[in-house]
Amino acid sequence: MTTLNHPSGSAGCISQYDPQALPVSAAQAIVLQWVTRLAASERVPLREALARVLAEDVISPIDVPAHDNAAMDGYAFDGAALAGASGNLSLTVCGKAFAGHAYPGEVAAGACVRIMTGAPMPTGCDTVVPQELVSAQGDVITFEANAVKRGANARRKGEDLARGGVALAAGRVLRASDIGLLASLGLVEANVKQRLRVAYFSTGDELRSPGEPLEAGCIYDSNRYVLGAMLQRLNVEAIDLGVVRDDPAALAAMLKLAAETADVVLTSGGVSVGEADFTRTQLQTLGDVSFWGLAMRPGRPLAFGRIWSGGRPGTGRAALLFGLPGNPVATMVSFYQIVRPALMAMAGAQAQPVPLVPALSDQPIKKREGRTEFQRGLARRDASGQWRVAPTGSQSSGALSTMSEANCFIVLAHEAGDLDAGDAVDIMLFDGLV
Ligand code: AMP
Ligand code: MG
C-alpha cells in the first residue's frame, strides 16, 4: 500500500519512497495533499475575468438562442411542404425577417418569408432554404424539394444553452470563449476566486540585479524574472521580494515577511547539497519543511513544506513553501512540474493535465533509468503529419538559451532508458491557442 504523507504529518516521512529519489508523480501527489483551497471570492467585471477561476457554477438565466432563428440567408417556410413534394417546389414570398426584426404575421401554406441569418423564425416556419438554391421570379421562388430537409438551416431556441442549465462549472479557468458565453447570457460580472498571493525571492551572494554593474564572480539574477513571468502567466498576485544574501538572519527575516504577506512562498537557490545545511536550519526552525531529492532532471533538489511568519510552527500566518533549485532551467522545470499544479489546485481551478503529444526522436538520446527527464526540444510536424523532435543543444540545467530555443519538453518517462533515433517519445508543447 502506498501511504503518502498528510498535512498532519511531516513532508519528509514518505513510507515506500526514498526521499532522496522521489518520483515526480509521488512528489506531485504529496504536494497536492498539503494544498488547501482558497475560499474567498469576489465579483469582477467580465472584461477583467479572463484567466480567473470561477468560484461557483454559472446557471443560465435565459435560453441561448432566445428564439428559433435562421442559420443562413434564404427563405423560411413550413417544412411540411417538403413531404410528398418531388421535383421543384414553388412558394410565394409574403414578407421579410431581419436580425432583430421579426416577421409579425402568420405564414400560410404555400408561402415563405425572405429571412436573414439570425432573424427569428416566423410563426409556422421551421425550415430555411438557402438563397443560393433558389431561383426567384417576382414574388415566387422555386427550388428543388429534395435539396432541403425539414428543419434545415434553423437554430432552435435553447440549443446552445438551456435556461436553468449549468453554463460553466465552478473551477473553470475562464478563457476568451467563456467570457463571450457569459456575455451571451447577459451577465455583466463573474464570481471568481480571489487571486492567490505568491511571494518570491532569489538567494545568493553572487546575484546582481539587471541594471547593476556585474563584479567579478557575480551573475545576473534571472530566476526572479523567470518566476515573475511564470506567475504572471498563471494570473496569480506575484510579490517580488528581491534578492537575499547568503546570511541566515537575512534569510529568516525574509521568510517570515513572505509568510506574513503571501499564501505561497517560492525561493530559488540554496537547496542543493552544498548549501542545503545553511537553509535547512532556517526553514526547519520556521516550520515543517523537508529537503527532497526528486528523481527528475533537471531539478533534483527541492525544499517543500509550510513555514510560519511567527518564527516557529503554529505562530502567526502559515504559507506553503517551495524552495526551488538555483539553476535557471531547474527552477523552471520544478515550477512547471511541482509548483504549478499546486497553485492551480489552491486557486480552486479544475485544471486538466497538460497534454502529451506522441513524437519520434530525430536522434539518439541518453537517458538514465529511474528518473523523469525533461529535455528541451524543438518539435515540428513532417509532411506526413508525424511530430518529430530533436533536443535543442546543451541540456545543462544552467543553460537558459536552449530553453528559449525550445518549443517543447521532451518528456522521458521514469522507467525509460537510452533512446535510438526514430524511437517514440512524448512531447509537451509550450504554446497553446486559447
Ligand atoms: P544554488 O542552488 O544556490 O547552489 O545555485 C545553483 C546554481 O544556480 C549556481 O550556479 C547559482 O549561481 C545559480 N543561481 C542561483 N540563483 C540564481 C538566480 N537567481 N539566477 C540565476 N542563476 C542562479
Ligand atoms: Mg546559492
TrEMBL record:
Catalytic activity: adenylyl-molybdopterin + molybdate = Mo-molybdopterin + AMP + H(+)
Keyword Nucleus: no
InterPro entries: MoaB/Mog-like_dom_sf, MoaB/Mog_dom, MoCF_biosynth_CS, MoeA-like, MoeA_C_domain_IV, MoeA_C_domain_IV_sf, MoeA_linker/N, MoeA_linker/N_sf
Pathway linked to the protein: Cofactor biosynthesis; molybdopterin biosynthesis
UniProt enzyme class: transferase
Function of the molecule: Catalyzes the insertion of molybdate into adenylated molybdopterin with the concomitant release of AMP.
PANTHER family noted in UniProt: GEPHYRIN, MOLYBDOPTERIN BIOSYNTHESIS PROTEIN
Record-given protein name: Molybdopterin molybdenumtransferase
